[in-house]
Each structure stands twice: as structure tokens, then as C-alpha cells.
Amino acid sequence: MQLMVTHALILILTALSLVLSPGSATFSQTPQTTRPADFHVDFFPVAPYHIGDVLSARVTYTGLAEIGGVEIDLALVDRPDQVLGTTTFSSYNRQAVFYWFFDTHETKPGFLDFRFSLPARGISWTQGVHLLPDSGSRDTAWAVSHSQCCTLHYLTGTDAEADLEQITETVEERSAIALSQFAAAGVFDESPLTDPLSIVLIPVVVGHGGFATHEAVLTYAEDNWTGIEFGILAHHEMVHVIDRLVNTEGPRPAIFVEGLAVYLSGGHYREGDPLQRAAALLALDMYLPLSQIVNNFYAAQHEIGYMQAAALVAYLDQLWGWETFINFYFNLPEGPSDAEIISTALAARFGLDLAVLEQDFITYLEALEPDPAVEADVRLTVEAYDMLRHYQTLLIPSAHFRTAWWPPLSAMREGSIVGDYGYREKAPLNVIIEHIFIEVHAAFAAKDYQGLESALGRINTILGEIENKDANRSHYAIGWPIKRNPVPHNRP
Ligand SMILES: [Zn+2]
């Protein structure tokens, strides 16, 4: 019904356009300058943009049409024939990314307008950025330091450069432990690392403060507001890199990938006994059935998923022994889903499936009696990181792991591009909220759960006001300038 009405409307509009515009062929080709509502453009590095930035653009399509493989190109509005870049939409995330398509070094300050075109769809629009003068203080550059285990990439003038000696000690220590943990399962006698582990230290927070590709990328900053202990984070990401290097045959279900990294590094964010923490989840009625999380692990509540994954690996280590677990994980058969992969392997080797294994796992956890402090820590960890992600979604989506801007670092080093990780300017509001997060993490360390709840309450109030848009409070009213209390940070 609705379709017919729409169709009739189109006919009327077409007829009208013929009447109004005798040259109807040119009418339909009049360049559209307003971006269609179902396309969204983000420019990077994030605003404010300065002369000297090398710009990237990410176009996201939210409409209903099939967009995978559709070509899009980009040019300066005043030089439309000179295409700056052409790319296609991914059918997976429906995004088209132009990496570093425009170097602003030779540009004058002012508004810089670009024209985006999808020739096959007859769609184009203009959109741009306001370019501020060179701030004069952006002179950081990539630098590299080599140690026995690792190649450390960092940016000059950052906290990482100042603490390089301690960082090197920490990564040497952690990589030796990580390698020995795999070696203990008889996976290799000699280190499989033919090349040193590549570690990149960035001063800004992206995601939860660390991520791994073929190299480990770690946030290192004195005012790191993610509260992650640097040694644990380095260890976690190193386990991922080694796992990928050694465990190359067959699938690697995310629940084991992350469970292994958390278990071997001693905790998630901070030290913590994985079985005690999973028992606390059960006691708090926060435990998520494995059937709900195993096939879409990264969509599950993040902290709960990771805590349970680590506990499952810890439990299997106790039950089977380390060598058997690693052998099991390294030799999983292909299958249509992670749940089926794990169940098939369990059936072949132990005559049970994931559901039966989970029953035994729960019975084991129920027998543990978690400390009330562990329960408080677990409950507030979930709350604090939910709030941290809520803050990212509302105010810095380029840092939220679902919408993060994390361009490939090796290409940036080759091109001497630093902006995307070097500078993410903070408004006073960001500084205020992030400072309270630092208080939150200090309260975790001090087991001050009352102080912790009150700090989280303060952040919640500010975020609530922003979300409801019912208050346009000055940052002076919220607490700017902040008093910089000395709080423990996460240096190694
Ligand atoms: Zn991980």
C-alpha cells in the first residue's frame, strides 16, 4: 500500500519536474550539495583541524540499499576534475575510507570544501572542514627504540619518551613471561619470534587503551583515564601477537583468544583471580550463559565476557592441565560457529559438549565463595567501564571501540604521519570527566568502593545532562579549572 502511494508521488513529482524544467536531462544532473541523510562523513584526525594535518575521511552509509562495492570519489570543490581519491564501500561495515587523502601543509587557513561523488548512483555532495592556522606546537615525530624482545615505536615529546627506560624493562619482563607460558605447553622449544615484537605506544586513548594487529598498540600517558595497568596491557597484547604467530592452523574462537590473554596476563585491566571474579559474577546474578556470548563474543557486555572467558580458560587449565588445554585450543576443527567448533572438539576428545562443560563450570564456581571486596570490585568494574564507553559514545566516538578511528600504524610511520594518534585535543569538559575517571581508578586500587560510587555518580550526572540536552552548563559550573590532585597513575 505504502509502496503504491510512494510510486504515485514519484510519478507526480516527475511530471512536475518535466513541466517546470524543459531540459529535464540537466535537471536531474544538477549537482546536489547537501549530503543525503543516509550518508555520514567523519574527517580525521578529529577536530579542531590545523594546517599541517593530513586529512582522512570515513563515509558511513546507513540507508537500506546495497552499497558494498559501490565506488565513491573525492575532490576539492574548486578543483573538481582533480580526483584526490577513489575507493569503494565495504559490504561488511558499509563504510568507505579515504586514508590521508589531503595534506594541508601548503593550504591557507579557512574553510576547505570537498566534493564526494558516487557516480554510479548519481549522488554527490559537498562537505568540508574548517582549517585553523598551524598551532606552532605540533612537532612530534615517530621514533624507535630497540631492545632484545621488542621494537618500541613512540612519539617524541610524549610521556612514553620520558619513561622509555622503565617501559623497556617492563616489556622485556612481560614478553619473557608470555613466551615461557606458551613454551610450558610444549608449543615450541625455541622462541618463535624471528623478529622482535613490535609495540607502538600512543599518547591517546583508543578503545580500551590497547589493541593488537600484527603489532601491539598501547596507550601510554600519565593521564591515561582507562585505568589499565601498563604491564598487564602489554602482556595481554603480546599474548595475542604470539597466539597469532604460533596458532595458525584452524579457527581461534574469540572466547579463547581473549580468555587466554586475560588469564596469562594476570587479569583484565588490573590483577585479579579469574575464578574468584567469575564466581562473583554468578553471586551477583550477572553471569551470562555461554550460549549467549560465545558466537558473538565482542557484542556481549565487555567486562563480563572477558572475565568469564578468562575464568573458563583458568578452569580448563585446572581440569585438563595446561598442555592439554593449549593442544585443544590450537587444534580446533573448522565449523559454522564458535559454539559448534568448541562442542565438536569437546565431543571428539572428551565426549561432552559446551552445554555440559558449562554446567560443570558453574557447579565449580558455585562452590567458591567470593570475597565481598571482589564482588564490589566486579560490580563496579562493569559499571565504570560501561560509563567510560558511554562517555566515549557521547563525546568522543572516535575513541569508542565500535566507531574507533585506528588507522594502520605502519603506513603512518612510513609516511611520517602523526596526527591521528598524536593529537586529540581536549575540551575542558573532556578533561573534567577524564580526571574523575582517574579518581575512579585510584579508588579501585585503594578498594575505596564508597568513593568510587560517588565519583561514578558525578560522571553520571554530567553525562545525563549532556544526553538530555536540558542543561548547557558552563564548564566553570561543573568544576573547571580542575584541581590536579596527585593520583596514582599507571606507569610501570
Ligand atoms: Zn584482547
Question: Any overview of this molecule?
Answer:
There is one protein chain. The radius of gyration is 26 Å and the shape is globular. It starts with a helix and ends in a 14-residue tail after the last helix. It has 492 residues and is of the alpha+beta class. The relative contact order is 0.09. The longest helix is centred in the last third of the chain and has 24 residues, at 372-395. Helix 7 crosses helix 12 and helix 13 (372-395) packs parallel to helix 17. It has helices at residues 2-20, 24-28, 159-162, 164-183, 230-246, 254-265, 274-283, 290-293, 302-320, 322-330, 338-350, 354-367, 372-395, 409-414, 419-422, 428-445, 449-468, 475-478; strands at residues 39-44, 49-50, 54-61, 71-76, 79-88, 95-103, 110-118, 123-132, 142-146, 150-155, 197-202, 210-212, 216-219. It is built from 18 helices and 13 strands. Among the domains are: 29-132, Sandwich (Immunoglobulin-like), CATH 2.60.40; 142-373, Neutral Protease, domain 2 (Orthogonal Bundle). The protein has a 5-stranded mixed beta sheet with strand order 2-8-7-4-5, with no helix packed on it. The chain binds zinc ion (ZN). Zinc ion binds at residues 236, 240, 258, 261.
List strands and helices in order, with pairings:
Blueprint: H1 2-20, H2 24-28, E1 39-44, E2 49-50, E3 54-61, E4 71-76, E5 79-88, E6 95-103, E7 110-118, E8 123-132, E9 142-146, E10 150-155, H3 159-162, H4 164-183, E11 197-202, E12 210-212, E13 216-219, H5 230-246, H6 254-265, H7 274-283, H8 290-293, H9 302-320, H10 322-330, H11 338-350, H12 354-367, H13 372-395, H14 409-414, H15 419-422, H16 428-445, H17 449-468, H18 475-478
Parallel strand pairs: 2-8, 10-11, 11-13
Antiparallel strand pairs: 1-3, 3-6, 4-5, 4-7, 7-8, 9-10, 12-13
Helix pairs in contact: 4-5, 5-6, 6-9, 7-9, 7-12, 7-13, 9-10, 13-16, 13-17, 16-17
Bound molecules: zinc ion.
Zinc ion (ZN) binds at residues 236, 240, 258, 261.
